[in-house]
Amino acid sequence: SQQGEEDPQALSIQEGENATMNCSYKTSINNLQWYRQNSGRGLVHLILIRSNEREKHSGRLRVTLDTSKKSSSLLITASRAADTASYFCATRLTGGGNKLTFGTGTQLKVEL
Amino acid sequence: EPEVTQTPSHQVTQMGQEVILRCVPISNHLYFYWYRQILGQKVEFLVSFYNNEISEKSEIFDDQFSVERPDGSNFTLKIRSTKLEDSAMYFCASSGIDRDDEKLFFGSGTQLSVL
Fold first, then answer.
1. Do residues A104 and A25 lie in contact, with contact meaning Cβ atoms separated by under 8 Å?
2. Contacts 24+ apart (CB under 8 A), B84-89
3. Looking at CA atoms only, how far is residue B34 from chain A in angstroms?
4. Which of A17, A78, B43, B56 has its CA 20 to 30 A from that of B68?
5. Min CA distance, A36 vs chain B (Å)?
6. Does A25 touch chain B if contact means CB atoms closer than 8 Å?
7. What pLDDT sits at residue B100?
8. Residue A76 pLDDT greater than 60, yes or no
């Protein structure tokens, strides 16, 4: 089993709709982060939520964290075609040094 | 905005050859990382580096791999004898040390193809 598993694996929506991606993890975390990756490019940090936080907002992004269920969700509101990318959750484990462990990713396609 | 730069963007090599992937992290960052991503798969941690030594490494990072910070700006990943399964996109990343600097900044990657 993997530390970060995301669902859905792929998501296709129309521009203007909201997109929700979910991430589940296995072990205790210090924080959870979401990254975006455009095709063939590097990852770009979107938002970080700490283990003692339940919800965080940044622009059109809303992240929730439920440590009892070991899960997080990323909501992108009013999606745009430019939001088309892969989205990864990444966890920093408690006592796990500074590395991030990435999830399997969700491929989001926003159609005009 | 400061960025992590990686060279080359593409590297083609023959199996058994040595390759060196180069990275220039963000100048005031103190933690450096290498990750790799096989096509269509998840991003996998290889190694982290702090204070001129490896702070953590994964099972992937075996004796064929090494990292070095030869000067104050470059951070390199060497693969001594490449295998077909080393073909992947390799990402360098860096981060600061403060509580508010826990996010990683990634380079655009080096696509390594081992033939």
1. no
2. B84/B15, B84/B114, B84/B115, B85/B114, B86/B112, B86/B114, B87/B38, B87/B112, B87/B113, B87/B114, B88/B36, B88/B37, B88/B38, B88/B39, B88/B112, B89/A40, B89/B36, B89/B37, B89/B38, B89/B39
3. 10
4. B43
5. 11
6. no
7. 57
8. yes
